[in-house]
Amino acid sequence: MKTLIVYAHPEPRSLNGSLKDLAVATLEKAGHEVRVSDLYAMRWKAVVDAGDFGPSASSPLRVAADSGRAFDTGTLTPDVRAEQEKLLWAEMIIFQFPLWWYTMPAILKGWVDRVFTYHFAYGVGEHSDVKYGERFGEGTLAGRRALLSVTVGGPESHYAERGINGPIDDLLFPIHHGILYYPGIEVLPPFVLYGADRTTGEDFPDIAKAWEQRLLTLESTEPIAFRRQNSGDYEIPSLHLREGLEPAGRSGFRLHVRT
Fold first, then answer.
1. I need a labelling partner for 139 at 20 to 30 A (CA). Which of 68, 178, 201, 254 fits?
2. What string of DSSP letters covers 51-81?
3. How far apart are CA 99 and CA 86, in angstroms?
4. What are the φ/ψ torsions at residue 191 (nearest 5 degrees)?
5. pLDDT in tens, 49-72
């Protein structure tokens, strides 16, 4: 299995750094190929601007259209093209990051903003009366799997169904469904470590054992059963879920999961 790890933490000696290192060692020992995009070490540029698109940039700037034209003509900046090539190479993508202010760190969001260009991650496929583009289960990145490995400062109870921060699945839904599933990537249930700010060296052996177990079962783990956009579950072009498909009492983000 070819695995890309996209790692976003500024401190190599952090818990996130240790989890990234353990993932590399565990997967390589199991015979898998691994590449790492260490965004802080790479000094990754986190903002989209006209410089990303070279001669394909328009004035005024139109980010979607210009990014698609730059992708089509091969004029995206080398750093962006390199990350796109890694994604096309990968069969599994692991995102290792801390949950900051209820979402991914800015540098990782900037990686998505710059790398997931028009015609690469979105804006592909036929638009008709029966199909609304190739997205949400289809697209350029279909056939790949992804896993979020996330450290969270607060205790698990704060992220439960009635927890004050909201359910962790709801907080991660925009990443799982809106960023990863949108271009066709199958998304595995996340690996979440709660109370990360209180973790000590004595805790790490148990954490490492749990993380190794997840890593060695990536290929056999069932992905989250998100509904495919063009499978018939959604009316087109409204993209409303058809009445009666959801289990009784289900609402919110969970409507978009089949089981």
1. 254
2. GGTGGG--SS--HHHHHHHHHHHT-S-HHHH
3. 24
4. -105, 110
5. 999 999 999 999 999 999 999 999
Residue where the block lists tokens 């500024």: 10
2-223 maps to CATH 3.40.50.360: yes
Question: Could you state, in order of their start, the residue ranges of all structural domains in the chain?
Answer: 2-223
- Alpha-carbon distance of 103 to 111, in angstroms, equals 14
What confidence score (pLDDT) does residue 258 get? 92
**Which contiguous run of DSSP H or E holds residue 37?**
strand 33-38
Q: Is the pLDDT of residue 151 over 90?
A: yes
Other Cβ atoms less than 10 A from the Cβ of 83: the count is 22
Query: What does the alpha-carbon distance between residue 88 and residue 130 come to, in Å, rounded to a whole number?
Result: 28
d(CA 53, CA 64): 11
**Predicted TM-score of the model (pTM):** 0.95
Q: Would you say residue 128 has pLDDT above 90?
A: no
Q: What is the dihedral of CA 144, 222, 103, 166, to 10 degrees?
A: 160
Record the tokens describing residue 179, joined without a space. Answer: 């960023």
Polymer length of the chain:
259
76/82 Cα distance (integer angstroms): 10
- The answer to whether the bond into 183 is cis (omega within 30° of 0) is no
